[in-house]
Write a structure and sequence with these properties.
This protein is of the alpha/beta class. The chain has 19 helices and 10 strands.
Length: 464
């Protein structure tokens, strides 16, 4: 492992904003350690939890346990924590984010201090752990219960945040009041729990200001990412795997808004100069699903070296324009959070209904293919992340049925132009999110090379 860490090269970024994320995250983790020393409340929580603004308004500092596991993976220092979880009787087939976090917590509690050489100072001991019962991933309900075995004095609160499921014969407008009412009740229950843990009451005026800031940030993110439609694209998915940090872990903060304001300015300047991720943009690819291998982000540079760029991705693109989401008139910040959550998760429902046989999970792929002039799709199946990655192959199969092949004129044997069709080439990579033992750089690069050859063959078949 030490040898692999030595050989590992840091991924090159195309934007200054993406390059600033590492120090930002390091400072954020250091901030949780300082907050604990100062007596501030800190809470374990998950990405895409909806209630970021609630925590900020109550001066509770969130500790993003998935993020810390990802950092361990990116630094190629997750194996020792995974092995510790295995020694506790947990299978390596479980979510490696969870295994890394549980292993780290158990080791810290056993030592009474941070494990040796803990990445960026380590993961702080929480005052509370906030689970979110979702169908997003397996550990949402069980991870913190397992961690509680080693921190029995730390309370766990589970909040149910349902995703409105898509059914052809059910209009979401017929069930939205039920969903929103349930989400509002769950959020109010969370507020009551946090008030009990902190001994202070929620300041709803402050919460309203925080939600305002969060909504402005949402719109700014959408407008900023939309700039990537430009040819050549000014930013790729490799950078987006960094710039997702303020979107997913800092909502409701001025820092997040300012970050995307700076990224917006940088991308506009690049578009004006026609400056792309690579000098010669040959292939525009869509990262169509799956979390990345955090230890192998340099694979994006390898794609770039072949003239392939990623103008868009579905992973960590956790926003749609607030202008396009139905929001009733209400001054209640809890209700606004609930409607925003519901509106985001049903955004693609109506679009899917307009295309016979489509599905929301396929519809946004189609939309991105059209909007970003995509030439091929890349997905990544992580062995330990079942729920989030289940269905990727199904999506590709459905896409092949729904996406109309593009007519292409080619020269026949007699020299006459003939009309033929082509399908959108796809590549499915396989490894894990942080378990580096699942990854082979040689195999991955060979598969990328073969995919590029397919893209090149398709490109040559076109008549310009």
């Amino acid at each position: 492992m030490a040898e692999e860490k030595k050989k590992h090269k840091k991924r090159r970024t195309a934007t200054e904003a993406a390059a600033s994320i590492g120090p930002m995250v390091k400072e954020f983790i250091s901030g949780t350690l300082r907050a604990k020393e100062e007596g501030r409340k800190v809470a374990f929580t998950f990405i895409v939890c909806l209630y970021d603004e609630i925590l900020r308004a109550m001066d509770i500092l969130p500790v993003w346990t998935e993020n810390f596991a990802g950092i361990c993976g990116a630094k190629r220092d997750a194996e020792r924590f995974l092995e510790r979880s295995e020694s506790l009787g947990l299978s390596r087939s479980l979510c490696t984010y969870a295994l890394c976090g549980i292993g780290f917590d158990q080791w810290r509690e056993e030592l009474g201090e941070m494990p040796p050489d803990a990445p960026w100072g380590g993961q702080v001991r929480p005052d509370m752990m906030l689970s979110s019962g979702q169908i997003l991933c397996d550990p949402r309900n069980k991870w913190y219960q397992a961690s509680q075995l080693y921190m029995p004095d730390v309370p766990v609160y589970n909040i149910d945040l349902p995703y409105p499921l898509y059914e052809d014969d059910v209009e979401f407008t017929d069930v939205r009041d039920y969903y929103v009412k349930h989400i509002i009740e769950e959020l109010r229950g969370l507020v009551a729990f946090l008030e009990k843990q902190t001994g202070t009451k929620m300041d709803y005026d402050r919460l309203s200001e925080t939600v305002d800031l969060g909504e402005r940030t949402w719109n700014l993110i959408w407008e900023t990412y939309d700039l990537r439609r430009a040819v050549p694209t000014p930013m790729g998915t490799g950078d987006a795997m960094n710039t997702m940090v303020p979107m997913c872990f800092m909502m409701g903060t001025q820092e997040a808004y300012d970050f995307f304001l700076g990224l917006n300015k940088e991308l506009k300047e690049k578009v004006a100069r026609k400056e792309g991720v690579v000098e010669d943009e040959k292939y525009r690819l869509l990262w169509g699903g799956g979390l990345p291998s955090w230890f192998a982000l340099s694979d994006f540079n390898y794609f770039n070296s072949k003239g392939a760029v990623f103008p868009a991705e579905t992973t960590y693109r956790m926003i749609e324009s607030m202008y396009q989401i139905y929001m009733p008139d209400t001054n209640d910040p809890i209700e606004r959070l609930a409607w925003r959550w519901f509106g985001y998760w049903v955004f693609w429902h109506n679009k899917a209904r307009k295309r016979p046989g489509s599905h929301p999970d396929v519809e946004w792929l189609i939309q991105y293919i059209e909007d970003y002039k995509i030439d091929g799709i890349v997905m990544h199946e992580a062995f330990s992340c079942r729920t989030w990655h289940l269905g990727l192959i199904w999506q590709l199969n459905q896409l092949a049925k729904i996406y109309k092949p593009i007519p292409v004129l080619v020269l026949g044997k007699d020299g006459k132009k003939e009309k033929t069709n082509r399908e959108l080439p796809s590549l499915v990579l396989e490894s894990d999110i942080i378990d580096i033992t699942t990854y082979s750089e040689v195999d991955t690069r060979n598969r990328i090379d073969a995919f590029i050859e397919t893209l090149e063959s398709v490109a040559k078949s076109k008549v310009h």
